[in-house]
Amino acid sequence: MSDLPTVIPPPAVIPSPAVIPAPAVIPPSYDRRMLEALVCPVTQGSLIYDAERGELLSRSANLAYPFRDGIPIMLLDEARRIE
Question: Which fold has domain 32-81?
């Protein structure tokens, strides 16, 4: 046996589905659960899928994250400012 103490990681915090707004339209290559699991990398807040522009919107950070080849680009440098 090891003399090192056992470290138990804290349980993952998963927001309840009632807290996450449902996207109006889900991109064809994603299922709803996957989009609900994504959060804004700046605020850790929920995202809303904008089907018209094909972006994930973070209203709390006023940012829009694009999709490229069906993949959400969740980088601050790639986000577009929204008002």
Answer: N-terminal domain of TfIIb (2.20.25)
- Residues 23, 48 contacting (CB under 8 angstroms): yes
Q: Which residues are paired to 66 by β-bridges? A: 55
**pLDDT exceeds cutoff 60 at 26:** no
Residue 19 in this model has a pLDDT that exceeds 90 = no
What secondary structure does DSSP assign to 17-59, as a single string? TTTSPPPSS--TT--HHHHHH---TTT----EEETTTTEEEET
Residue ranges covered by each domain of the chain: 32-81
At 18 the pLDDT is 45
What distance lies between CA 35 and its chain's CA centroid?
6
So what's the pLDDT on residue 4? 62
